[in-house]
Write a structure and sequence with these properties.
The protein has 101 residues and is of the alpha+beta class. It folds into two domains: 42 residues, no CATH class; 47 residues, no CATH class. The protein has five helices and two strands, in the order ααααββα. The protein has a two-stranded antiparallel sheet with strand order 1-2. A hairpin with a 4-residue loop joins strand 1 and strand 2. It is globular and about 50 Å long.
Length: 101
């Protein structure tokens, strides 16, 4: 989650109790949700930082700028993190940063 006070657990409960949204669908469909999730101390960087710490799957990859090709050299599975909610989406952000740099 984008919000520093979220300490894991059931995010539905956090959204309802701490963020005071009674309806999860209304929260997800809120017109200004992107602004809300990235204002004050909230940030996608908070979420990305959390994802880097504990993830089940990660890739070692290279990017060939000339060919505009991404090659996954190796996939690492961390079985200790199997029961964690997580993602490796931060790799996409890293790749985008590599491409535009």
């Amino acid at each position: 989650m984008h919000i520093p006070s979220f300490q894991g657990g059931d995010y539905h409960t956090f959204i309802k109790k701490d963020l005071k949204f009674r309806d999860i669908d209304k929260f997800k469909n809120k017109k200004e949700i992107y602004t809300y999730l990235n204002s004050k101390d909230n940030s996608y960087q908070v979420m990305i930082g959390r994802l880097r710490k504990c993830k089940y799957l990660s890739n070692i990859y290279s990017y060939n700028a000339k060919e505009k090709d991404v090659y996954i050299k190796r996939t690492i599975i961390s079985k200790n993190n199997e029961c964690q909610n997580g993602s490796n989406i931060e790799e996409l952000f890293d790749l985008i940063n590599t491409i535009i740099s």
